[in-house]
Amino acid sequence: MKLFKHSYKRMAAALLGLAMASGVATSAQAASVSEGVAVIPGTYLFDLDAGSLTTGPGADVWWEQITATSRVLMPYSTAQLAYVGQIGVGGLSFNALTVSDLETLTYSATGISGGDVGNLLTANSVFAVKTDAGNYGKVLVTFPFFQAYQNNGLGVYWVTMTPTTAVPEADTYSMLLAGFGLMAAMVRRRTA
């Protein structure tokens, strides 16, 4: 009987350590949802989660052509946008942007100008999208084709990632410990 009690204590301690270790999330780990290169033609919708042009459902951005010289990238449905900046300005590196960085940005339903006046969507500019599905996308403008015969296409490279997993609060650990305590009490009662 003493051997069983001693083994159970070791097993309970090991399970507690395993449960606590698995409950702690690392903010650097985010799963990639989609990644690729595309040209978004004028007046088209794009879904960053699926990584494709779409006709509506699931779309995150709309490359709106207002006139031949006035264009704007608009968020679509519940998606939101944030302009990040130009590569190299202020040390901005597209590859170094993590999902944690994207989560801290201020997103809005306001569009980003791509028109001839006030254009923010030039080559090497970066914007972020909080997608309709709740993921985060970082988008690099690779080459804007601002000519009517090319339908004012916007060339982009994007990476869409899942949000970081929240680290469990102290209450979670308290409940976990209480559960292990209850299990230990039940086993103790059975062996007594």
Explain what this protein looks like in three dimensions:
The chain has 192 residues and is α+β, with helices and mostly antiparallel strands. The chain is built from 3 helices and 10 strands. The strands form 2 sheets. A 5-stranded antiparallel β-sheet has the order 1-10-9-8-6. A 5-stranded antiparallel β-sheet has the order 3-2-4-5-7, with no helix packed on it. A hairpin with a 5-residue loop joins β8 and β9. α1 runs antiparallel to α3. The longest helix has 22 residues. The N and C termini lie close together (9 Å). The N terminus is likely disordered.
Can you summarize this structure?
With 192 residues, the chain is of the alpha+beta class. Helix content is 26%, strand content 30%.
List keywords for this structure.
about 190 residues; alpha+beta; five-stranded antiparallel sheet; 3 helices; about 25% helix; elongated; disordered N terminus
SSE run? HEEEEEEHEEEEH
Oligomeric organization of the protein chains: single chain
Strand order of the largest sheet: 1-10-9-8-6
The largest sheet, given as strand count, sense and whether it forms a barrel, is:
5 strands, antiparallel
Topology of this structure?
Blueprint: H1 2-23, E1 32-40, E2 44-47, E3 52-54, E4 61-65, E5 71-75, E6 80-86, H2 99-103, E7 112-113, E8 125-130, E9 136-144, E10 154-161, H3 170-191
Antiparallel strand pairs: 1-10, 2-3, 2-4, 4-5, 5-7, 6-8, 8-9, 9-10
Helix pairs in contact: 1-3
